[in-house]
Structures are given as structure tokens and as C-alpha cells.
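Q: For a teaching session next week I want to show students how multiple molecules come together into a single three-dimensional assembly. I've collected the sequence lines for a complex. Could you give me the predicted C-alpha cells for the whole thing so I can convert them for display?
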Amino acid sequence: MVAVILSLGLLVLDHRYHHLQQLRNALAFLTYPLHYLADLPFTASRWLGETTSDRDVLLEQNRELRNQNLRLRGELQKYESLQAENLRLRDLVDSSFKVGDRVLVAELSSVDLDPYKQQVVINKGAASGAYEGQPVLDAHAVMGQVIGVTPFSSTVLLITDISHALPVQVLRSGLRTIAVGTGRIDALALPYLPTNSDIAEGDLLVTSGLGGKFPPGYPVATVTRVDRSPDAPFSSVVAEPRAHLDRSREVLLVWTVPNQLPMLPGAAGAETPDAGADAPTPAADESLGADRPEPAT
Amino acid sequence: MSADGHGRLVILISLCIAMLLTILPMPEWARPFRPQWVTLVLLYWAIALPHRIGVGSGFLVGIVLDVLTGTLLGQHALGLSVVAFIAIQLHQRIRVFPFWQQSLGILVLLVIERLLALWITGATRGETPGLVYWTVPLIGALLWPWIFVTLRSIRRQFEVS
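A: Of course. Below is the structure for the complete assembly, covering every listed component.
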């Protein structure tokens, strides 16, 4: 009886409030060895495969990567000049913009969590500076955000989880909306679009940065279906995530680096973005105009 | 005293192995069919040693399982403590059943745990899983005789009482 009441109390507390996150993180430290053990055979077999692979294959791979690196560097040069030009133009029209995010590569642990929740475990945690609410990308697009951190691992909620919503923008028309997870790994829903909104199949959705958690401008999904029925107030729009949510092995943890913008007064630790623990949110920076006066104390 | 600590170690290790099986990666199509390993092992100990494994143990194991699998804190704790309670009430009857009848009893307990979990996810997340959800207790009940025999031989081997 006591146990039932206690469980129900915990359920309500965990669902309604977020005080229990610390308890959860502390307990997660205890369960980390289990995660590690479950992952061990896969890590070991990969290590074995890498150490015993053929020299020729490695050389071939090396050459390929070199070529790819060269090509990417070439493209990067173009990108850098474009970025500089963009900043100059934005300076001219006096609008604030920031570029340059710090990233860290993390690997997925081969661990299965609850099959009815879309979350994964990665092998970088608080010791590497990961923090709750941190955006996670893969090589293609946004994957999700960190929801739990232990010293050596973190749990990532994918954007397709039913409890996840992400502020996005249609790249073509600039239309802002919210992409909600559907619980299926290959679909996001855009439920808040009126029937006359400017969106079409094939449109690219990028993060709008309005929620304050994700940096703006990262690709999220491609619109795959738009259903406009005249009797419904909203059109039903489905988009397919561009990130390889079920196939990526490496992911990128992103720290948004504040660039040439004044810090929020009183935001403790905002000057040390490397710590990652208290990086100021982009929304806070955007609301703070470059010429905004200091509040009188 | 040392025998007592010894027994606890055996029970803990068996539960840890069950938890490992719970998070071990499986192919995508097989994921929804994963049996309730921890529930099965906990049920065995609750039926075999009701004076040692009870509602409290069920609750603690459930909390750890919640953290391990990232579910709402208390979801597994509720299910496991309720199931452990029923198992302790019925342990003398279940023990003398033949295997197939035991499996039926276990099936009912597994379904109860699954149902409680379904209520909680339904109330907090508003999603209803498909029929696949209910094949899991069935698989668990089919596995029960093997789990029972294995754990019983382990218990006799290490003289846990």
C-alpha cells in the first residue's frame, strides 16, 4: 500500500514538476555500469574489427577521406567569405546575428531503452560539458536534445518523440511554426498551420531559434505531405526528419557561442561558454538588442 | 550472517543480469517483443523466498529500472510492487502448481504489470500502443518454466534461503 502511494506520488512529481531530475541523474550514475556492460560487446567487436582490418583497406579509406577533406575545405573557403559578407551586410542594416557554434562528436551507446519512447544514450556526459537542454545534431540535421546528464553519458530525446516540440521555419517562405513528434521515427507533424499557409511538399524546415534551445538555421525536416481539407481549420502537414535518427552512430553536441553581443546582466557564468553549463540562450540574446541600455539598478 | 550476504549477492546478480537483458540492443523488429525479464526474475524470488523479496524490493528494483530505461519515475516501481504483493499473497498456491498452471498465473501477473504501465503512459503521454504490446506477457509466460528451473538450480547451488 505504502509502495503504491509512493509510486503514484513519484509519478505525479516526475510528470508535473522537474525536481526529480537530480534524483534521476544520481541514480543514473549507479546504472551507468549496466549501460556500459550492455554496450561493451559492440564496442569490443568494433575495436577488434578496426585493429584487424586490412592495411590496403585502411589506405584506401585514408585516401578517400583526404580527397573528401580537400573538397570540403574548398567549399568551406567559399562559405567563410560568404559568412564574412553576411556579417558585413547585417552590420549595415544594424541587425544582430551570431555565427560559430562549438561542437563535440559523441557516439551512441548500443543500449535499448523503452521501445515506446524515442530516446538514445550517448557516451559523453557532464565530464565533457554536456548539459540538459543541449541541442544534438547528426551529420545531416537536428536529432534532438539532451534530457538527462550523468558524468559519462547522457540521454537524448529525439525530435520524433511524442513529447517533443521544436520551433521551425520554412526555409522558402520564412513561415514560422512548431514541429511536433509523432512517436514514429520517420515523421514529424506540423499541426498549427492554417489551411491557407504557404507550405508545399518538398519544403525544407530549419530551426527558427525561437524556443531558445536550438540555434537558428539548422535543417530539421522535409515536408512530405500537405493535406488541406476545406472543412478543417488547420491543414495537416507531415514532414520527414532529415537526420538519420535510426541509423546515425556519431552525433554532434552543439554549444552556441555568443558572438559580439552583450551578455545578459546577471547571467552567471555567461562569460565562459566553454563550461557549457550556463550558456546563454539564443532567445535571450536576440531579445537583447545591441544598443539596449543597461537596466537601472 | 555470511550466508545471508551471500544469498543477497546471488539475488542482486540475477536481477542485474535481467536488467542487462532489458537494455541489450536487439534488431528493430524484435524490440517490441522483449520479455519483461526483471519482472520474471523478481517474481521467481518473491515466490521462492517471500520473506526476503517483497513489496519494498519490488519498489526499489522498479525505481532503478525506471532510471535505466528512461520511463517516468515510478512507472515500473508501481507495477513491480503491486505484482510482488500479489505474488507473495499467492506464493504457497503457485509453488505447488504444475508448470503450465504456474505459467498461467504468471501470465496474469505480467498482464497486470503491463496494464498498470499502459494506464500510466496513456494518462501522461496520451499514446496507445498496438496489439504487439500484449504479446510480451505471453512470451514471458512461455519463458517462465525455463526461468523457474534455471533460477531454482541456481538457488539450490548457492543455497540461498
